[in-house]
Design brief:
Blueprint lengths: L1 E5 L3 H10 L5 E6 L13 E3 H10 L8 E4 L2 E5 L5 E5 L3 E4 L1 H9 L4 E3 L5 H7 L2 E4 L31
Parallel strand pairs: 1-2, 1-9, 2-8
Antiparallel strand pairs: 3-7, 4-7, 5-6
Helix pairs in contact: 1-3
């Protein structure tokens, strides 16, 4: 089977890694150029879940781990303060993991082919474009939660 995986974020890159040594011909597409390919979404996750996913692809999640959270200190607009325990929450080098998932795989950067063109060439097209849903129909009713993101620099990591 010839499979196109559209979008090289966490989901698309993970699928590429899982299918890498299968009998299928798999090609990944990323609309950004290779130089501009980045991971713009939050880098926090549940450590135990990513450990399971990485293990299925022969990777050790600890190689990508940046910080294991213990407590999040929250200060509300009305000066109310409280702490939240972060059981299992961690920060990881998401872009490094994505790049590791797709290394040595066929990835076409800087292209977002039309669905009609993909359908002529591939047996299966998997839309991993996230919130954009570039190839899937838009949902009639969807829920999204606006968030704030901060990129933090550590002395020895991202």
């Amino acid at each position: 089977m010839k499979i196109a995986v559209m979008g090289m974020g966490v989901a698309g890159s993970y699928l590429i890694a899982r299918l890498k040594n299968s009998e299928h011909e798999v090609v990944g597409y990323e609309r950004s150029t290779q130089e501009r390919h980045d991971s713009i979404c939050a880098w926090g996750t549940i450590k135990s879940e990513l450990e399971k996913f990485c293990k299925k692809t022969g990777r050790n999640f600890d190689d990508f781990l940046i910080h294991e959270g213990k407590t999040m200190h929250v200060k509300m607009n009305n000066s109310v303060k409280f702490d939240i325990g972060l059981h299992g929450l961690c920060t990881y080098d998401k872009l490094a993991l994505i790049k590791d998932f797709i290394k040595d795989s066929k990835i076409i950067y800087g292209e977002a082919p039309k669905l009609e063109d993909l359908e002529k060439e591939y047996d299966m097209i998997v839309d991993c474009t996230g919130f954009a849903r570039t190839y899937l129909p838009k949902l009639e009713e969807d829920f999204f939660l606006p968030t704030y993101e901060y990129k933090v620099e550590y002395e020895d990591k991202v």
